Amino acid sequence: MVAKKRIGYYSNKRIGDKIYHTSTWRKLRRSYYGKKHGLCEQCGKPGDIVDHIEEITEENVNDPFVTFNEENLQLLCLSCHNTKTFKKHFATRDDVMFDEFGQLIKK
Questions:
Q1: ∠ CA(8), CA(88), CA(94), 5° rounding?
Q2: What one GO molecular function would you report for this record (predicted)?
Q3: What is the reported pTM?
Q4: Which of 35, 46, 86, 89 is the most exposed place for a label (fewest CB within 10 A)?
Q5: Is residue 76 part of a domain?
Q6: Residue 13 placed within a domain
Q7: Residues contacting residue 52 through CB under 8 Å, at least 6 positions apart
Q8: In this structure, what DSSP letter does residue 47 have?
Q9: Is residue 2 a part of any domain in this protein?
Q10: DSSP 64
């Protein structure tokens, strides 16, 4: 039986999916996870995601020095990964913070 290609499926895939389904990536991920003892490199909690420090893009997805380089990897828990990944999608300011009452104040 031949699988049918779903319309729009490929346009919805992440750029990195091309490498994440390879045996090379699975071996690298497993090895890196073990070297970091399964702990998030940011907070020390159990790690969930072997993350690329330099984000995978259409320009570098075929560059093994980006995609398969341990120096470009970090093990993160889901919370730290989401903070890193989604921070760029939200407006942030470095000159303000919240006080103990939840009020916005200058740093």
A1: 165
A2: zinc ion binding
A3: 0.70
A4: 89
A5: yes
A6: yes
A7: 16, 66, 67, 72, 73
A8: P
A9: no
A10: H
Nearest to 56 by CA among 14, 85, 16: 16
User: Which spans in 21-107 are helix H?
Assistant: 23-35, 64-67, 78-87
Token reading at 36? 């970091």
Domain that holds residue 55: 9-106
What one-character DSSP code corresponds to residue 71? Answer: G
Q: Tens-of-pLDDT digits for all 107 residues of the chain?
A: 444 444 333 444 678 888 999 999 999 999 999 999 999 999 999 999 999 999 899 999 999 999 999 999 999 999 899 888 877 666 567 787 777 777 778 88
- What 3-state class would DSSP assign to 97? strand
Domain count, the chain: 1
Q: Do 47 and 79 contact (CB within 8 A), yes or no?
A: no
Q: What are the tokens at 87?
A: 């921070």
